[in-house]
Write a structure and sequence with these properties.
Rossmann fold; 187 residues; 6-stranded parallel beta sheet; single chain; alpha/beta
Length: 187
C-alpha cells in the first residue's frame, strides 16, 4: 500500500503549516496520507508520542512508505524507527528542521529528547531539509543530525522554521524533492 505519514512537531497539529497541502499533492501518485495527531503537542510526553506512532505505523511500513517529519516529529520518528525489531526498507524518510540534541531555547523538551535514540535508518531515500536561519532549531543542530545519519542537509535560504505564519502553507521545494523520489524509476 502506498502510504504517506506526516509527523508534526511541537505545538503543531495535523492542520498546521503545509501538511494538508502536501497530502493533497501526493494523491496524484496513488498515495493515501495519515497526518498523525500526536497528543498534547504543547506539552509533549515521550511515551504518549511513541505509543501514538506505534499505534498508527506498526505493520504499516513497506517499500512504498514515505514518512515526512517536522521538528520534534523528526526525533520522534527516528526514535520509533530505531526501536523497531525489524525495520523495513521504506521508500523515503524526509526530515525537516530535525535535531537529536537538547535545544537551548526549548529546555521544556529536554526530558523528552533525553529518552530518544537515533540510529541509521533503512530507507531508499533519506533527505534532511533545514532553513539557513531557523530561530527554533539552529541550522547547526540539523547538520549534526545529518552527520549522525551519514547524509547531507539541504539548506534552504529561509529565516524561519517552515511554519504557516512564515508563509509555509505550501512547500514547493519539498514537493519538488518528493516528486524526484516518486518518479525514481530505480525503485
Amino acid at each position: 500500500m502506498k502510504q504517506l505519514f506526516i509527523i508534526h512537531g511541537y505545538q503543531a497539529n495535523p492542520n498546521s503549516h503545509w501538511f494538508n497541502w502536501i497530502a493533497q499533492k501526493i494523491q496524484h501518485y496513488g498515495y493515501t496520507t495519515d497526518i498523525i495527531e500526536l497528543p498534547n503537542p504543547h506539552k509533549p510526553e515521550y511515551h504518549a508520542w511513541y505509543d501514538t506512532l506505534k499505534h498508527h505505523m506498526d505493520h504499516e511500513l513497506n517499500d512504498q512508505t514515505i514518512i515526512i517529519a517536522h521538528s520534534l516529529g523528526v526525533i520522534t520518528t527516528l526514535n520509533y524507527l530505531a526501536r523497531l525489531s525489524k525495520a523495513p526498507n521504506i521508500k523515503a524518510l524526509i526530515l525537516i528542521s530535525g535535531f537529536h540534541e537538547k535545544l537551548r531555547n526549548l529546555p521544556e523538551l529536554d526530558a523528552f529528547i533525553s529518552q530518544t535514540i537515533v540510529r541509521n535508518i533503512n530507507a531508499q531515500h533519506i533527505l534532511a531539509l533545514a532553513a539557513t536561519n531557523d530561530p527554533i532549531v539552529d541550522n547547526a543542530a540539523s547538520n549534526r543530525l545529518s552527520q549522525l545519519l551519514n547524509i547531507n542537509t539541504i539548506n534552504i535560504e529561509h529565516d524561519g522554521h517552515f511554519l504557516a505564519e512564515e508563509g509555509y502553507t505550501s512547500f514547493e521545494f519539498l514537493w519538488t524533492q518528493l516528486q524526484h523520489i516518486l518518479n525514481d524509476k530505480k525503485d
